[in-house]
C-alpha cells in the first residue's frame, strides 16, 4: 500500500517514523494508503531544518518572495484538477466542492503575492530636532500549522503563504485523514523555487502535535480544528511562550424572517447545511425560523433535502459525498436518534442512506429535524455532519438572544428583505462573521477570518491583515545623525 511520507528540508523522507495510520477512501470505506505518524524526533528534524532555512529566508528580498508566490500560484492553477481529485478521494467531498476550496486557498496566495504592500512600514520625520522614527515588522522564525481534515488545502493556505511571504519558515502538520494534498503542495513550492527547509510537512497525530507545541524552536503555532483541541493547543503553546492563533468548532445559525424570499433561503440553507456533507466550519447547522416563516420554510427544506443526490465525490452527478470516517457516520446517526428521542420531529431521516455499489462507504443522507429546542443535544453539540435543526422563535430579538447564548460564535446569516432588520441583526449578534442573504460568509483573503467565543481561542483571527500581524513583530527605530555633541540630560522633544 502507498505510504504517505513527510517532506523535510526539500525532500521526501520517512525520517525515524515507523508507525502508520490508514487513509480511507470514504466512498468505498476501504483504506487506500497509509500515512506515517511522526515521532518527536521527526518533529525535531523538521524544526531544525526550518530553523536553518530561516537564517537565509529571513534575509531574502521581498521581490524574491513575491516571485516565488506568483510561481506557486500558477502551479496551483495547473494542478487544480489533480489536487481536487486527491482531496475528493481522501475527504469524500465532491470534486467541484474541492475545486472551490482550492480557489479560496489560492486567493490567500494571491494576497501573499502583494506582501510588499502589506509589509510597508511607517515613517515619522523630525519627531524631535534631527530625530526620525520608523517602524517595520520582522518575521518570527519557525512557525507551525496544525490543520483539520475538512479543508485539506484551504485551511493550511490560510497560514503558510502569509507566514512564508513575511519571511518565516513553516512546519505543517496536516490532518492524518487526508494528508496527500499537503505533500503535493510541498512539491509545488519546491518547483516554484522555494528554498529547501522553508516549507516542511510532518505527518502525524497527537504525538506530532504535542512535540510541536513543546518544541523550543517553534516561535508560533496556528491551529484550526475542534474547540477542545484548540483549547489544548492554546494552553500548551502559550505555556511554552509561543504566539498562538487557535480556531475552534462551530454551530452556525441562519435566521429566516417571514419577509425573506423563502425559496431562495431554502435553496441556500440546503446547500449550506448539506454541502460537503455538513463538514464545513461555516456550515449552517441551525435554521431559526421566525414567526410565520416556519411552516413554509420546513416544507421547502424537506422537499429540497430529499432532492439532494448522495453519491461518491468523484461522480459528477453527486451533490453530496460521504462523511470522512465510519466514526463520523456513527456520530451523525446517533445525533439524529437522540434528537428523535428528545422530542424533535425527524422530517427527513438520513440514517438509512445507502449508495448502490458503495455499500461499505461512509454515507449518511441529509437529515432535517423540526421543533428543536436549545436544550436538546442535537442543538447543543457540534455534529459536523449533514443535519439541519430547525428552531422556531417568534421575533428577531428572540433569534438574536438564542445565537448570543450559544457558546460558539463562528458564522451566522440572516435571510430577510428588510434592511432595518438586517442592520439590527448584524450589529447585535456576538458572532465573528455575518452574512446578509449570504449563508456562508467566509471573508475574502484581504479581510481576516475568525469567529468569537469558543470558535476562536485567544484573540488572533487568521489570514489577511491579521495574518500579517500574527506572523511578524513590530520594531520601532528612533534615529538621529548628529552634528552636535551628546548631552547627559534626558532626551526631550524640543
Ligand atoms: P480535530 O480537532 O480533531 O483535529 C485538528 C488537528 O488536531 C488535526 O491535525 C489532528 O491531528 C490534531 N489533533 C486531534 N486530536 C488531538 C489531540 N488530542 N491532541 C493534539 N492534537 C490533536 O478536528 P477535525 O476533526 O480534523 O476537524 C473538524 C473540526 O475542525 C470541527 O470542529 C470544525 O468546526 C473545526 N474547524 C474549524 C474551522 C474554523 O475556522 N473555526 C475551520 C475548519 C474546521
UniProtKB/TrEMBL annotation:
<dbReference type="GO" id="GO:0004491">
    <property type="term" value="F:methylmalonate-semialdehyde dehydrogenase (acylating, NAD) activity"/>
</dbReference>
<dbReference type="Pfam" id="PF00171">
    <property type="entry name" value="Aldedh"/>
</dbReference>
<keyword id="KW-0520">NAD</keyword>
<dbReference type="InterPro" id="IPR015590">
    <property type="entry name" value="Aldehyde_DH_dom"/>
</dbReference>
<dbReference type="InterPro" id="IPR010061">
    <property type="entry name" value="MeMal-semiAld_DH"/>
</dbReference>
<dbReference type="InterPro" id="IPR016160">
    <property type="entry name" value="Ald_DH_CS_CYS"/>
</dbReference>
<dbReference type="InterPro" id="IPR016163">
    <property type="entry name" value="Ald_DH_C"/>
</dbReference>
<dbReference type="GO" id="GO:0006210">
    <property type="term" value="P:thymine catabolic process"/>
</dbReference>
<dbReference type="GO" id="GO:0006574">
    <property type="term" value="P:L-valine catabolic process"/>
</dbReference>
<feature type="domain" description="Aldehyde dehydrogenase">
    <location>
        <begin position="19"/>
        <end position="477"/>
    </location>
</feature>
<dbReference type="InterPro" id="IPR016161">
    <property type="entry name" value="Ald_DH/histidinol_DH"/>
</dbReference>
<protein>
    <recommendedName>
        <fullName>methylmalonate-semialdehyde dehydrogenase (CoA acylating)</fullName>
        <ecNumber>1.2.1.27</ecNumber>
    </recommendedName>
</protein>
<keyword id="KW-0560">Oxidoreductase</keyword>
<dbReference type="InterPro" id="IPR016162">
    <property type="entry name" value="Ald_DH_N"/>
</dbReference>
